[in-house]
Amino acid sequence: MDKYIFDKKNGLWYELQGDYYIPCLTLPTEKEHKPIGLWGQRHKRYLQEHKRAVYTTLLTSGKLNRYLADIDEQAAEMMFRLVEQMAGKEGVTEQLKAENSMLWVGRMNEIQARAREIVNIEIIYA
Questions:
Q1: What per-residue confidence (pLDDT) applies to 26?
Q2: Which InterPro entries does the record match to this protein (predicted)?
């Protein structure tokens, strides 16, 4: 038996594995490979665990990396914007940082935790 055969009906190559011919399938390659940061990794894990159909569709269509890179970029921008706005509204300024750095660090940590929670709810786990 031949190791590889070609089926003219569907245009696929098949490889002999034991007693069976298995189609030689590959995923489409993505045109550009953007790096995926923390937010994109979290969203990927969420898709794998809770939205398997969406994850599989994106993976097999070759659009997963671009999608996750976009999610990562949106989440990072939203996080930066929220922290900036919350700090401005709550009076956490550079002047406070110069006068009482420990208070500034504590308040900024609280602001970042709230902003992180908003980003998680609005983008990552949506």
A1: 78
A2: TnpV (IPR026989)
